[in-house]
Design brief:
Blueprint lengths: L2 H14 L4 E2 H8 L3 H13 L4 E4 L5 E4 L12 H17 L8 H12 L2 H13 E3 L27 H13 L3 E6 L5 E14 L2 E8 L4 E6 L3 E6 L12 H10 L5 E8 L2 H7 L5 E6 L12 E8 L5 H8 L3 E5 L1 H19 L5
Parallel strand pairs: 4-6
Antiparallel strand pairs: 1-3, 2-3, 5-6, 5-9, 6-7, 7-8, 10-12, 10-13, 11-12
Length: 348
Amino acid sequence: MPRPLGRVLTLLELLQSGGLRTVTELADRLDVDERTVRRYAQQLVDLDVPVESVRGRYGGYRLGPGYRMPPLMLNDDEALAVLLGLVAGRRSGLTAATGTASETATAKIRRVLPERLRSGLDAVLGSLAFTEPPGGTTTAGATGATGATETGSTTPGPGVLLPVADAVRHHRPLSIRYTAADGGRSERVVHPYGIVAHADRWYLTAADVTAGEDRTFRLDRVTGVRVLPGSFEPPADVDPARRVLTGLATVPYRHEVVLHVQGTADHLHQRLPAGLVVVTELPSPDDGPPDTGPCCRVELRVERLDWLPAVLASLDRPFAVERPDELRDLVAAFAERLANSARKSVPS
């Protein structure tokens, strides 16, 4: 964008924030002289933007009443990217320093979108759940723990995401074409409960009417969606995010790990990778030592064990390995490497 044109648009943005702006203030913000500010204001007037000039000692420029921005020229993919990026940034804490800026930006974008797209995006935002709490981050070591080697985009396109979200919002059945992990293709009827974002992937929790059971589907593997007539009543206690995590944690993998860890279930859920772990708080034994605190049985299904010793050390809680024995050897080797590093001194 040519620099003078960019400054004209910046002037419009400043005036849109409301109130009267003095020529001196605008010149400072735009890093130009006052004569140039007047020229930019006239260019806006020539474009039919109702810029009003206020004379006097405290005069300046303001926008006339009733002016509205033209609709944003965003296609479905761009609108989804912008709004979901704002939501994700706000949840992760990346936009915390700007206060309510992400919320006001979201509201402004929604106001100028066409009704069709706005209602569709509202359905997405209203049906979307996250497995990580606001400000949460992926647990160290979780990436690659399942041994996944898939490449390519895992983000569903608007042709899938928008109709699925609308069906979740209005409790409408769907017919979906689905490609499983082994490449098998099928078409099935589902009652969608919710959309869940987890570990850079999107999931749909639903009752699979075709199979007669609740299922979790990867949305990037859905190749076609058709909304069916009628409606259904979802379970009153449905928790889509919890269903996704439970489903992922019980998928069979190469290694089944069982640990006993001294600590609360809440503490362990915060430290261990969501979607790979099932934590069960155990009753305190009657003859156990006093003041040991709660203990939990932890089950993980993973493709690799090499990342687990560092994660277990980060728990800072006593633990015992029930199985597999291979993990005991890896923990012992990790502890020995830490001890050797602690004994080393830096050469002078």
